[in-house]
Amino acid sequence: MRDFQFSCHIIFLFFLSLIYISKGFEYEEFYINQKVDHFGYSNQDVFKQRYLSNLKFYNEKNGTIFFYTGNEGAIEMFANNTGFMWEIAAEFNAALIFAEHRYYGKSLPYGELSFENNTYRGYLTTEQALADFASLIYHLKNVLPGGLKAPVIAFGGSYGGMLAAWIRIKYPHLVNGALSSSAPILLFSNSASCKNFPAIITADFKNAGISCANNIRKSWSIIRKIGKSESGSMFLTKTFKTCQSIHPVNVSSLIEWLESTWAYLAMTDYPYPTNFLNPLPANPIDVTCNGGASLGDEVWEYQECTEMVSPECSTGTTDMFEPKSWDFNEFSLECWKKFNVKPNENASYIMYGGKDITASSNIIFTNGRLDPWYGGGILQSLSDTLIAIVIEDAAHHLDLRSSNAADPDSVKKARYTIKEWIYKWIFEYKTH
Ligand SMILES: *[C@@H]1O[C@H](CO)[C@@H](O)[C@H](O)[C@H]1NC(C)=O
Ligand SMILES: *[C@@H]1O[C@H](CO)[C@@H](O)[C@H](O)[C@H]1NC(C)=O
Ligand SMILES: *[C@@H]1O[C@H](CO)[C@@H](O)[C@H](O)[C@H]1NC(C)=O
Ligand SMILES: *[C@@H]1O[C@H](CO)[C@@H](O)[C@H](O)[C@H]1NC(C)=O
Ligand SMILES: *[C@@H]1O[C@H](CO)[C@@H](O)[C@H](O)[C@H]1NC(C)=O
Q1: 371 annotated active-site
Q2: In the structure, what pLDDT confidence band is assigned to residue 190 with cuts at 50, 70 and 90?
C-alpha cells in the first residue's frame, strides 16, 4: 500500500506539473452554414459550423489544402496539437484548415439546446459530421483562388483519424489522401481486441518498473475493501482529495476515474511534457466538483451509445485492472436508460468497412506501439496505397505533434515517410 501511494503520488505530481508549450499557432476563425440534416429534405434547419484557417502558405498556382477532420472537442485544441501539419505546410504550399465536429466546441446545431432531447441530438452521427466536412471542402475549393485544382489531404488523430480515413473512403472526389493517426478503427468490429487496450497500458507501466503495475493491480481490492465503510470511504475522499465526498455507493466511480487516469497517462506518454488532453489533469476536479461528466463527455458517450460502440474489457491477469467482461446487452440497456437509444455494434462496419476497404486508396494508418489504442488500429498495409506504419516508441498520435528534440528516431522516420506519400499523392493528382 505504501509503495502504491508513493508511486501514485509521483505520477500525480507529474500529472499536475504538465506545462503548456506555446508554439504560437495563428489562425482565423470562420463559420459556415451547414444543414442540420444532410440526408433529408424536410428539416431545413441550418447551423454555423466553426473552422480555423491559415492561408499564409497557400499558393493559388500550386497550392494544397490540408484539412483536419475535427474530433470530439473544441477545435483549437486539435489545431494547437497538430504541429506536424503546420511544420510541413510551407513545403506543400498548403492552406491549413481545422474543421470543428458538430455538437462540440462552438459548432452546436441547436445552440444550448443541442443535447436537449433525441430529436435535437439525433443529428449527431459520423455520417452527418463527414457531410459537414465534405460540404466545407466543396465550399473552400470554390472560394479559394486556384482551389478547384488544389489537392486536398485529410489529417486526423484518434477519432479524428477515423474521420480522416472515412472521408477519403466516402468522398474520394473531394479528398485525395488521408493521414489517419492512432485511429482504432477495428475496435468496433472486433470486440476480442478490447482486452488489448488495458494490456498495453499495463505493458507501459511495466516498462516503468514492474512493481508499479502489480501494485496498481492490488490496489483495486484494497480500495473496495476500504470503501465498504463510511469511515473508509472518508479516508479515500481525503487521500484522493475529491471535492465531493466518496461514499460506499460510489467507490466504483472512484475506481473508474483511477482507471481512466492510468489510461490517459499511457496515451500521453510523450517524450516531453505537454498539456494535450488538457481536461485530464483537471478531470478529478471536473468529475468530482461538478458531480458528473462535462457536456463534451456526455456527447461522446452518446456517440458510443449509437455508432461508436467501443467494447471494454479486462482480465486482471494480462493487465493490471479489475477483471471485467464485455456484455453488449448490458451496455445496450445502460444506453437505453441514459439516452433512450440502442447502440448498433455493426453500424460502423456496415458504413465504412472496417479493414475491408481495399476498394479505397491513399490512406496512411499510423499507430504508436505505446498507445493503448494500438490494439484496435490497422497495423499491416492493406494494399499498395493503404499503408500501415507502426511507430515503435510512440504514444497516442505522437507523429501529428510538432517535432521535438526528444522525439525518437522512429517518429522522425514515420514523418518522413508520410511526407513522401503526400508528395506522391499530389504528384499523381496533378499529372493525372
Ligand atoms: C491555441 O494556441 C493559441 C495561439 O498560440 C492560443 O491563443 C490558444 O489559447 C490555444 N488554445 C488552446 C485550446 O490550447
Ligand atoms: C509545386 O508544389 C510542389 C509540392 O507541393 C513542389 O514540389 C513543386 O516544386 C511546386 N512547383 C512550383 C512551380 O512551385
Ligand atoms: C425537443 O426540444 C425542443 C426544444 O426544447 C422542443 O421544441 C421539441 O419539441 C422537443 N422535441 C421532442 C420530441 O421532445
Ligand atoms: C457519491 O454518491 C453520493 C450520493 O449518491 C453523491 O451525493 C456524491 O456526489 C457522490 N460522490 C462522488 C464523488 O461521485
Ligand atoms: C451485429 O451483427 C451480428 C452478427 O451478424 C448480429 O448477431 C448482431 O445482432 C448485430 N447487432 C446488431 C445490434 O444489429
Answers
A1: yes
A2: low
